[in-house]
Amino acid sequence: MFExxxxxxxxxxxxxxxxxxxxxxxxxxxxxxFINMSMEGGMLGSAFVSVAVDMFTGSAWIGLLxxxxxxxxxxxxxxxxxxHFRGNHVVCSLGFNFIASGATIVLMSAVFGATGYSPSVEKxxxxxxPLFGEQSICFFLAIVLTFLIIWILKNTVFGLRIIAIxxxxxxxxxxxxxxxxxxxxxxxxxxxxxxxxGSELAIGQMGFFANNMIASAGFLAYSAVVFAxxxxxxxxxxxxxxxxxxxxxxxxxxxxxxxxxxxxxxxxAVTIIALVFMKNKKKPGMLGKIYExxxx
Amino acid sequence: MILSSILxxxxxxxxxxxxxxxxxxxxxxxxxxxxxxxxxLEVYGVMFERAATSFDLVLRRAMVLMxxxxxxxxxxxxxxxxxxxxxxxxxxALTAAVVGGLDLPIPAGFHTVFAxxxxxxxxxxxxxxxxxxxxxxxxxxxxSTIMMNSIIAYIATYLVMNPFRGSxxxxxxxxxxxxxxxxxxxxxxxxxxxxxxxxxxISTYVFLERTPKGLELKAAGLNPVFSRYQGIKVGSMGLxxxxxxxxxxxxxxxxxxxxxxxSYTDEYFLQYGFDGIAIAFMAGNNPLGIIVSxxxxxxxxxxxxxxxxxTGVSTYFVSILQGLxxxxxxxxxxxxxxxxxxxxxxxxxxxxxxx
Lengths: 296, 355
Prior knowledge:
The complex is a heterodimer of chains A (296) and B (355).
Chain A: H1 2-31, H2 39-57, H3 60-84, H4 89-112, E1 126-129, E2 133-136, H5 138-155, H6 157-167, H7 169-174, H8 179-206, H9 217-227, H10 232-255, H11 260-264, H12 266-276
Antiparallel strand pairs in A: 1-2
Helix pairs in contact in A: 1-5, 1-8, 1-9, 1-10, 2-3, 2-4, 2-8, 2-9, 3-4, 3-8, 5-6, 9-10, 9-12, 10-12
Chain B: H1 2-6, H2 9-35, H3 40-53, H4 55-77, H5 85-100, H6 108-137, H7 141-161, H8 193-210, H9 212-222, H10 224-229, H11 234-261, H12 272-282, H13 287-310, H14 317-330, H15 332-354
């Protein structure tokens, strides 16, 4: 019994890592007022690039770097459309998701010469930890990055300005904070996080790329942030909570007689139920609003 | 009079901007093709040649896509974003296949109507669920409909594989009864449902533009705060939009099952719901525009099958085009700034002529 609980806990942590990276990106974007539903596409693209770079260079480290660089480029482009050209946040995000999911499938045969699954590539170094089991290097990076983000948001001028922009953009603007530039920094950070999330899944855990391998994790990450009422530290708990149900359904498939299709719906159903019981009151004041400075 | 209101000047400007954005998307898409070492001219040539030669297939697909576009456009008018077309189409199609396969002692035509009605009700239940969550509990409807898509896809797979399985060899339901099918359009590859779908688009246009309820629905979407002061129930208008959208998507799936494939196959309707988003955006959420944009999207889809066979570029190239079209259309400043540059060039030329 204890061993089973431990193994469910360990696989929850593994599933949580990409989710936590993505959720941190979504949370940071929400703090500057951007509804980030594009983690899905960013992670998918990063996963693809990290596997491709890993395959051509033979080094998982360069693969990770490639994934991060792609994530940054992806969110840079999204910044151009959604912030610089003032597009609708949700629609721009979803459009970018379409492009990423289409492009990875189209490029699949050209890059890997295969359809559906890429060949296996070298994985990031794994560590055997007490309690947490076998985790990739991203486990430590996730801890460091998460607490760094929480510390920056709470204790630095930079972080407080980010929060100020999300709460009341015109007030922040009138104080002389360069709004678009701050959003640019946040988008870059979100891109780095998407890169970590996608690469961790592809070359940290799986060791290959599969079509649509992110499977709505980007949207689960968004839900985790809403479920945590946009609190950075609670986001860790909620992403673990959602990952736990995914791990649970995987285990339940082996010993329960419920059809696997019903168990597979569990993480999505839990997400909806969790959001139903969440009062969405603490969201940043300018979330989803397109800011334009008054002309006069 | 209706014609003159359709051809208003602002609509023509919107139309030309849409065409321009689609053109830009095709242009960006061809950069991608060059990267793949495929000739853009050949790919687009094959795409539209194939679409032109099998135009009845295009129309058959456009019928479903039209409804899928309405499923996005009507809720959008009421201020809601229905991403759940994908799941609602599957639910409607499966319901129609199951109800159409029942042995019912009713006349032929009524069986069809019964199957369509039950599909529409299932669709309304699904979209209404997300609508109620959004209005009552403030759950973002984009998230809840996306989650519902995954849930419905898994449940549909289970239902087709187990209780409703009608074929030993493939995951599909039994063939529907003859009495439930929609007759083919003069022996062509599409059914009379296409006429009905176009009729539904036109009546949606009339509903939104010419009836008080439609006006209230649009007002609730355009300016919720002001509408509330006018006594419009913004929440119920949003819910009405979602209900109509869900019914439209489910009917789209049911049309294809009853009039085209005559049974539901697992994963048959992949991407149909997401196509609806691009279609609604291209039409500027105008139901009449949806008729045109759904035929365009269906042509691209049908053509892409030939492209993947002949040049090896995956059909998912269409997803890239759709993403580009959506992003370019929703970012007004982008196409505006390019148009402004073009205008500048033209104006400079004129000045030179004057001198």
